[in-house]
Amino acid sequence: MRLILLGPPGAGKGTQSTRITQKFGIPQLSTGDMLRAAVKAGTPIGLQAKAVMESGQLVSDSIVVGIVADRIAEPDAQKGFILDGFPRTVAQAEALDVMLAERNLSLDSIIELKVDENALLERIRKRAEETLAAGGTVRADDNPDAFVIRLKAYQEQTAPLSAYYAKKGQLRTVDGMASMDKVTDDILAVLHQTA
Ligand code: AMP
Questions:
Q1: pLDDT of residue 86
Q2: Residue whose C-alpha is closest to residue 128's, from 9, 28, 31
Q3: CA of 31 to the centre of ligand 1 (A)
Q4: CA 9 to chain centre
Q5: Which of 116, 84, 95, 113 is nearest to 176 (CA)?
Q6: What is the mean pLDDT of the chain?
Q7: Active centre residues (catalytic)
Q8: Is CB count within 10 Å lower at the N or C end of the chain?
Q9: How many C-beta atoms lie closer than 10 Å to residue 4's C-beta?
Q10: 88 lines ligand 1 (CB under 6 A)
Q11: Cα separation of 109 and 165, whole Å?
Q12: How far apart (Å, rounded) are the C-alpha atoms in residues 86 and 93?
């Protein structure tokens, strides 16, 4: 199964991707996680991406397309994957189409988590508080200033993907404001119909 989860920052893509991957035993390919790992390891990509990520802007298409192309070629991705946080621009979606076509693969489902964008800032604040309370480290871009920029990047560059996939007849939507369990159930129901 090859699946894309779309939605603004804070919509719950990461949480839901983790749940779905556990259920289906396929890897969660989060470009945000891959980039954060590169930053931590101080690789050339990490060095290039660090400041851009911290500000809340998008890393260049060529960098993320490159890391996704490498990642989907790995053995564990052969039985499928969930893309979390990629594609984020129409150019990335087009590059993904080419990458998959070259391998004779296609996407089974593209699911958009629909959320009330006004409620997201509060969600992000809560996420930071809970992480701190649990003794974790809050992401450098989980602060109100960077979040506003992330949301703007989403609205300007990522939101057009809904139309891109809707035109291909592949887009399904799920209410991301429901409880975490209900969102998971709704995603599973869509997968049942489409995958
Ligand atoms: P995320 O964990 O998905 O919220 O991503 C965190 C940050 O990593 C984003 O704000 C971007 O700076 C960068 N990033 C992650 N995925 C992408 C992508 N597909 N294209 C461009 N930048 C990305």
A1: 98
A2: 9
A3: 6
A4: 8
A5: 113
A6: 94
A7: 13, 88, 127, 139, 150
A8: C
A9: 26
A10: yes
A11: 10
A12: 8
Q: Is the CB of 32 under 6 A from ligand 1?
A: yes
Residue in the block written with tokens 């489902």: 109
pLDDT in tens, 25-74: 999 999 999 999 999 999 999 999 999 999 999 999 999 999 999 999 99
Atom of ligand 1 nearest to the CA of 55: 12
Nearest to 13 by CA among 113, 159, 128, 160: 113
Q: Categorize the per-residue pLDDT at 178 as very low, low, confident or very high, splitting at 50, 70 and 90.
A: very high
Residues 6+ apart with CB under 8 A from 89: 58, 61, 157, 158, 161
What CA–CA distance (Å, rounded) separates 34 from 71?
9
Q: Has this prediction a pTM greater than 0.85?
A: yes
Residues in the chain: 195
- Contacts of residue 173, defined as CB under 8 A and 6 or more positions apart, other chains included, come to 111, 112, 113, 114
The verdict on the CB of residue 157 being under 6 Å from ligand 1 is no
| Mutational pocket test of ligand 1: of 4, 13, 35, 143, the residue with most ligand atoms within 8 Å of the beta carbon | 35
